[in-house]
Write a structure and sequence with these properties.
By secondary structure, the protein is of the alpha/beta class. Helix content is about 40%, strand content about 10%. It contains 21 helices and 13 strands. It has helices at about 15-25, 40-50, 60-65, 70-75, 100-110, 130-135, 145-155, 170-185, 210-215, 230-240, 250-255, 275-280, 285-295, 305-315, 315-320, 325-330, 340, 345-365, 395-405, 415-420, 435-445; strands spanning about 30, 55, 60, 95-100, 120-125, 160-165, 185-190, 220-225, 245-250, 375, 380-385, 445-450, 450. The strands form three sheets. It has an eight-stranded parallel barrel with strand order 1-2-4-5-6-7-8-9, surrounded by seven helices. The longest helix has 20 residues, at about 345-365. The chain is globular, with a radius of gyration of 22 Å. Mean pLDDT is about 85; it is low at about 1-10 and about 420-464. Pfam families: Dus.
Length: about 475
């Protein structure tokens, strides 16, 4: 591997577990870098609900390095307002870049060096834009370049470098890849247990076995990413992989309280009490309004796209029913230069949603929440009452086809699932062990009309 000539820094570089323990505080519950979705306002909200470490959205080093592009710089890491990376409100924080030019990456990282605890290299994005720009997972065949990208930061920054990557088809190559990243200087590795090709409707289950193999092969901390919908999945993932922490993307995006109250034992008698369920799954309209309050409280401007995206995701269970509010939310127009002055339009939709969800909740007053939990018939995953925040999961084409065959339907749509005979209206059985939700999703349609269905839960986590 090519090496970069070291530049002497003024303080000793922290090693992996020094960074993990002494600076980051030994985080187990981590929010992923998500484009336009893990912005400062979301980070602040997430910390209120148990997130211990959060990454910035992915920043394109090629654009960020251009100091004349002030609009892009301020939109992605606002140094002028002085809140992003502020030790009193936005730490611990890791800033993530995508790049394919070592010098551009270093120059960009130098800009944020004093405002974060580490810089992360994105080696996982599988989207077409990453393919066109030659970054993310589309660098994974050029190990020499990846080594240079990591090593130039390791050698020249005063703070550590970390890396987030996807697995290869074999355990052996995945482990070899992880070892190379460690040798280049990465002090924390996040292993997303999916292949580059696993995205959208082909997302499938993340491979925890490969993540475990990575953890056993390297000496730096490892975060596991993939298959996290409910808190039982977090516990199951940590046990299965032996990792130091779990990173969530889409699971936390639809329910920012994913990590809330997680210290409460899964096997405690009151785990499914209304009080405990509402800690893990707050009323989504309340969360949406709280998020808007956070946006209003900051000097840093939150993008219009980011705000609308969060509201659609948080309130999704209600918006699926209240179609007029979904249309109203979609039609809200905001002046990007006057975001705070225009937030009232969003607040009106959220307050109306709150009123309607309170109406529905009042209609079943006296019924324990655990008795209102149902099962999504295609995947077999539990569904919380529609006024509560909860994960979103997409059935795969194979799962939909199997469900349609089993129920005599031409195709499985949301309408047909809602009206056909199924298990969706019966209460969920008591979980017999941690991780039941993911396991049930793997097995629910394993055998349908004699045809074995691939054990996979499709499209649960935003690829990064």
């Amino acid at each position: 591997m090519a090496e970069t000539t070291p530049e002497i820094t003024s303080r000793r570089k922290l090693s992996g577990y020094e960074l993990y323990r002494d600076v980051l505080g030994s985080p187990k519950y981590v929010v992923a870098p998500m484009v336009e979705q893990s912005e400062l306002a979301w980070r602040k909200l997430s910390r209120r609900y148990g997130a211990q470490l959060i990454y910035s959205p992915m920043i394109n080093a090629k654009m960020f390095v251009d100091s004349t592009n002030k609009t892009y710089r301020r939109a992605n890491f606002d140094l002028i307002s002085g809140e992003e990376g502020d030790p009193t409100i936005d730490r611990p924080l890791i800033v993530q870049f995508c790049a394919n030019d070592p010098e551009q990456l270093l120059a960009s990282a130098k800009v944020v060096e004093d405002h974060c605890d580490a810089v992360d290299l994105n080696l996982g994005c599988p989207q077409d834009i990453a393919k066109r720009g030659r970054y993310g997972s589309f660098l994974q065949d050029d190990w020499d370049l990846i080594y240079k990208l990591i090593n130039i930061l390791h050698t020249n920054l005063s703070i550590p470098v970390t890396a987030k990557f996807r697995v290869f088809p074999t355990v052996e190559k995945t482990v070899e890849y992880a070892k190379m990243l460690e040798q280049a200087g990465a002090q924390i590795l996040t292993c997303h247990g999916r292949l580059r090709e696993q995205r959208g409707q082909l997302t499938g289950l993340a491979d925890w076995d490969k993540i475990r193999a990575v953890k056993q092969a390297v000496s730096v901390p490892v975060f596991a990413n993939g298959n996290i919908l409910y808190q039982s999945d977090i516990d199951a993932c940590l046990k299965a992989t032996g990792c130091d922490g779990v990173m969530s993307a889409e699971g936390q995006l639809y329910n920012p309280a994913l990590f809330a109250g997680i210290e409460h034992p899964l096997d405690s008698p009151d785990y499914d009490s209304d009080e405990q369920i509402l800690i893990r799954h707050p009323r989504h309209a309340d969360l949406a309004l709280e998020y808007l309050d956070v946006v209003m409280s900051l000097k840093t401007t939150t993008s219009v796209g980011g705000i609308k995206g969060h509201l659609f995701k948080i309130m999704r269970p209600g918006l699926l029913r209240e179609l007029d509010l979904r249309d109203k939310l979609g039609k809200v127009k905001i002046n990007p230069k006057k975001v705070k002055e225009c937030l009232g339009a969003y607040r009106t939709v959220c307050e109306e949603m709150k009123a309607r969800m309170e109406r529905d909740e009042q209609a079943v007053k006296g019924t324990p929440l655990k008795d209102l939990i149902t099962v999504e018939p295609i995947t077999g995953i539990k569904v919380m009452p529609h006024w509560l925040a909860q994960p979103y999961f997409r059935p795969s084409p194979e799962q939909k086809e199997a469900y349609a065959l089993a129920n005599g339907l031409e195709e499985a749509t949301e309408d047909s699932v809602a009206t056909s005979p199924s298990k969706s209206k019966r209460p969920l059985e008591e979980p017999t062990e941690v991780g039941d939700d993911t396991k049930r999703a793997r097995l629910v349609l394993e055998e349908t009309n004699g045809a074995r269905i691939t054990e996979s839960l499709q499209g649960n986590v935003i690829p990064a």
